[in-house]
Structure formats: C-alpha cells, structure tokens
Amino acid sequence: MAKRIVWTRQNAAVLEQLERDGRFIAREEFMRSAMEDTSEIMFQLYHWLATHMPTQAARPADASYPIWVALSRETCMPPETGIVMLELEVDEEVLALADITKWTRMMNYSYIPLNSADNDEHNSLLERYGIDDAKALMTPFYPQIRAKILKSWERLFDDSVVLGGAGSYGLLWEVRREWIRRISE
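The structure assignment produced for this chain is given below.
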C-alpha cells in the first residue's frame, strides 16, 4: 500500500483526544467553536464536501466533516499559540485530493467550468440575466442556474478539469495516532 506524508494544523486539544481515543475526527460542534465568525453557508459547503468526497468508503460512521491536510510542509500554515502541526504518514487510499483553485471558486459560490469555452458560455448566461454566480446560488429566483452551479462542483475531484494552478490539498476523514510522525508547536 502506497504511503504519503501530509501535514495538518490542529488545536492542541486534538493531541489530548488522540492520546485518549487513538484518533481524531472533525465534528460539527468542534468546527463551529473554531470558526465562530463563519457563516452558515460555509457549513453548507462543508456538508457538500463531506457528501461528495471520493473516499466515502473510508468514512467512519461518526465523522461529520473531513480534515484538511497540506501535501507539503511549505503549504501548511505555521503553528501559532495553541495550535500544533502534525506530520502524518497515511495510506494514499484514505486521502482525497482537492484542487485548491476549484475549492476557492466554491467558497466564492462560483461555477467550476469544464474549460474556457464553458466558462465563456456560463458568463454569457449570467450576463443575459444580469446576475452573478452568488446571486444565482443564494436566491430562489434562478433554480436552473443554481442547479448548474451546484452540479459543476462535482468537478472539484475531477483531475481532467484544470483551471490553471496545479495546487491541491488533501482531505482525510480522521487522524489516527499511529499516523503521526512528528508534532511541531
């Protein structure tokens, strides 16, 4: 089984849970307390992410949301007070890769185009209606465009759709104590 080294920043309390339970999973209550100022739409995005990840077979029954990991130490933000960086060695089959450019489009409530021609056609459609993606997605007035945008998000995990950058992050359903190679504070 192929292995991969990844990094994740977590609250120091995660170490206590790993020691106590042997594993850590992201639960909604943890996320809400960590992201107090995050709007409800972010939780809708994370719910979408959790239900569309290609590694559903590896999802523990008690895992609500995936855990983001960096694929290189340089792309993992440095630790800060109360935060630790975990270096993990995981089986590649439990790791889902998400294109960061596509994820950023999703966080901006935007369409993920197949290619530049598809992008132009979509922008033309929006122009005809005098709206943008966010308005189409967040109001009840454009159900067909909203459905098109949501359907396009399935391209997040599609490697054949490239939007420019080649940057990706990884997603895991859990962190296991035995995966930890190094802890940095």
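Interim note for the steering committee: The helical segments are 13-21, 28-34, 40-52, 100-107, 116-129, 133-138, 143-152. The domain at 3-100+164-184 is CATH 3.20.170.20 (ADP-ribosylation fold).
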